[in-house]
Amino acid sequence: MTPEERLSHLGIALPPPAPPGGGYVTWVISGHLILTSGQLPWRDGKLAYVGRLGAELTIEDGYQAARLSAINALAQLEQGLGRLSRISRILRLDGYVHTAPGFHDHPRVLDGASELLNEVFGEQGRHTRTALGISEMPFNAATQLVVWAEIGTWTP
After folding, report:
1. Which residues are bridge partners to 89 per DSSP?
2. Tell me: the pLDDT tens digits for 90-111?
3. What is the CA radius of gyration of the chain?
4. Separation between Cα atoms, residue 17 and residue 155, nearest integer Å
5. Which residues in 55-92 are b (16+ Cβ under 10 Å) and which e?
6. How many CB atoms lie within 10 A of CB 142?
């Protein structure tokens, strides 16, 4: 099954890619790599999850925020490549979690993104990951993700 077919099977329609929020681009291609800029949990032009994990938000809220951020990253990748099936492998996920002091469950939050990428790309979705907690986030967003992918021939 292609990534597009898996998204359809999951009932996920990719949103229009969010425009950049400043003087940068939302994705870039270099050689056989495509990287996204940091993707936030936007839904219908508004942040769906704002605040800090361990204070205003629960781990489940964070999981859903990371999943939504990953959906927005997929929209950027699709815009950059024309179709997700041009991706041969998801290489890396850099995840930033907006946290209150003492919060230590970053991996559980970012599993919302990792598990989605694994569902959409199968074995080729398994990736390396960085999980960082930060005290301040743009627009008070709960999560921010950067996705690194290899461009090549899709092989299910």
Report:
1. 150
2. 999 999 999 999 999 999 999 9
3. 15
4. 26
5. eebebebbbbbbbbbbbbbbbbbbebbeebbbbbbbbe
6. 29
The residue behind tokens 């599993």 is: 111
Task: Give residues with Cβ within 8 angstroms of 35, minimum separation 6.
Answer: 27, 28, 146, 147, 148, 149
Can you name the CATH fold of 34-151? 60s Ribosomal Protein L30; Chain: A; (3.30.1330)
Tell me, rounded to whole angstroms, the distance of Cα 119 from its chain centroid: 13
What tokens were used for 107?
């991996």
H-type alpha helices, the chain: 3-10, 59-81, 106-121
- Whether residue 98 contacts residue 52, with contact meaning beta carbons closer than 8 Å, is answered with yes
What pTM was computed for the model?
0.96
